[in-house]
Specification:
The protein has 346 residues and is of the alpha/beta class. Helices cover 31% and strands 23% of the residues. It has an eight-stranded mixed sheet with strand order 6-16-15-10-11-12-13-9.
Length: 346
């Protein structure tokens, strides 16, 4: 890949698009959505602009693509925020108007299924932002997590280097959106144990690529990922979703990335803290700890034959757990295994 474009940043008071290119969950959980919109106005000083499919579940992929294209085309819109993820955005990106996106680059914020859009923008030469969700993070019960707010504010409004920090407490057991009264109190949090470092003691600096691991697997199957040559010298980031793929499935996906030749391209790999609790799989705290250990072992077992010299950092708060740190997608990151620090440039 050549040089990627950093879209201009919004300013407080600007209009920003709020879209649902994946799932129209704002229509099912309006109490969570409206809370997120209110915080977008009050915490960040931005005016959300909703599009026709934002609250519609099962909207036609072409209509969702039309909304996303329109958000980029509108000169009064200075950033685009996804409301939430889903599971079929892979059917939407083929309908985007790439000429419009290239001519009107804007900061795009999303994660999970939005990996499809992040990767699409990357391949168009546009830096985007992994993280941020109107429902999940701005609509967080009790209050938005301070680390999430600080990271999101820096990503929205600044262009400087920003140092990521391990969360002193974290959680992966959300309050149920089906019970509006639970918005009044914060979700369960557990003591943080810091990041876990593997590999050589060196400093790696490069451009980021990756996203949700399950979605990356779909993108590889659809042949929509960059080549190993295009990714050479980059830093891979990935995380797993609330579907909680097993350690064996994680091993196979990462191994498949190795067989495709991708793993050898990365000087460092940043792995998000795995989500280890869901409503249909309510694991105990010890079971969640064991789940995380099995996931880490699976990643290292898959990675080592293809890139034994990579710096690897586990349990970074960038995925489906709480808080969530925003990572520039296609932007710069520095992974310092000597000082054990990670910085990103927004």
């Amino acid at each position: 890949m050549g040089t990627l474009i950093h879209p201009p940043k919004p300013q407080p008071g600007d209009r920003v698009a709020v879209v649902s290119p994946s799932a129209g969950l704002p229509g099912l959980f309006p109490h969570v959505y409206e809370l997120g919109l209110r915080r977008l106005r009050e915490e960040f000083g931005l005016e959300p602009v909703e599009y026709p499919t934002t609250r519609i579940m099962g909207a036609d992929p072409r209509d969702r693509a039309r909304d996303l294209t329109a958000a980029f085309a509108d000169p009064s819109i200075t950033a685009v925020l996804a409301t939430v993820g889903g599971d079929d955005l892979i059917t939407v990106t083929p309908h985007l108007d790439d000429d419009v996106l290239r001519a009107n680059p804007k900061p795009y914020f999303g994660y999970s299924d939005n990996t499809n859009v992040l990767n699409h923008l990357y391949r168009l030469g546009i830096v985007a932002y992994h993280g941020g969700s109107v429902l999940v993070h701005l609509g967080r019960p009790g209050a938005p997590h301070p680390l999430t707010v600080d990271s999101l504010r820096a990503a929205l409004f600044t262009t400087d280097w920003y140092e990521l920090t391990p969360a002193p407490t974290w959680g992966d057991r959300p309050n149920p959106w089906t019970e509006p009264e639970t918005l009044a109190y914060e979700p369960e949090m557990l003591p943080g144990e810091g990041w876990r470092w593997q590999g050589p003691q060196r400093v790696v600096r490069g451009r980021t690529w990756g996203g949700n691991l399950e979605i990356l697997h779909w993108l590889m199957a659809a042949d929509r990922v960059p080549t190993a040559d295009e990714l050479a010298g980059s830093v891979l980031l990935f995380e797993t979703s609330e579907e909680m793929p097993s350690a064996q499935e994680v091993f196979r996906i990462v191994r498949n990335m190795g067989e495709r030749g991708l793993l050898a391209a990365f000087g460092a790999i940043i792995v998000g803290r795995p989500k280890a609790w869901d409503f249909d799989k309510p694991l105990s705290v010890p079971e969640r700890q064991a789940w995380g250990e099995a996931q880490r072992e699976a990643v290292m077992r898959a990675l080592t034959p293809y890139n034994p010299e990579a710096v690897v950092v586990f349990d970074v708060d960038l995925g489906h757990t709480d808080p969530q740190l925003i990572i520039p997608y296609g932007g710069e990151i520095q992974v310092d295994a000597v000082a054990r620090r990670i910085s990103v440039r927004y």
